[in-house]
């Protein structure tokens, strides 16, 4: 059985935007930690949040649910939520679930911050 690599989430504040950059898979065990970082980001009341998924090779249902929860928080708080840097597998998961039509998804962090 493959050893679990712990999820690491880098947090940066760029002007009035918070950029969350998770690294590692986001599945059942990692989703609560990811959710904690998202909630802390929204608690800081930024103008927007960017989730840079470039270093997330795979995300299961709990990870997707965490992103949906983040979208709901952004709508309640009036801020923006942008997802960028999707890997092929994560992009496919969002496409199959039709969430690619719900989220604002852009190719890169540079585009998300523009």
Features:
114 residues, 4 helices, 39% helix, 5-stranded mixed β-sheet
User: SSE string, helix = H, strand = E?
Assistant: EEHEHEHEH
Number of DSSP strand runs: 5
* Helix vs. strand class: alpha/beta
Q: Do you know the CATH topology?
A: Transcription Regulator spoIIAA
Q: Mind telling me the C-alpha Rg?
A: 13 Å
Distance between the termini: 42 Å
Task: Name the beta content range.
Answer: 15-25%
Average pLDDT value? 94
**CATH homologous superfamily title:** STAS domain
Shape category: globular
User: How would a crystallographer describe the biggest sheet?
Assistant: 5 strands, mixed
How many domains? The number is 1
Number of discrete helical segments: 4
Major sheet: arrangement of strands: 1-2-3-4-5
Helicity range: 25-40%
CATH class: Alpha Beta
Structural features, described:
With about 110 residues, the chain is α/β, with parallel strands linked by helices. It has one domain: Transcription Regulator spoIIAA, CATH 3.30.750. It is about 40% helix and about 25% strand. The protein contains 4 helices and 5 strands. It has helices spanning about 30-45, 60-75, 90-95, 110-114; strands at about 10-15, 15-25, 50, 80-85, 105. A 5-stranded mixed sheet has the order 1-2-3-4-5. Helix 3 (about 90-95) links the parallel strand 4 (about 80-85) and strand 5. Helix 1 runs parallel beside helix 2. The protein is globular, with a radius of gyration of 13 Å. It starts with 7 loop residues before the first strand and ends with a helix.
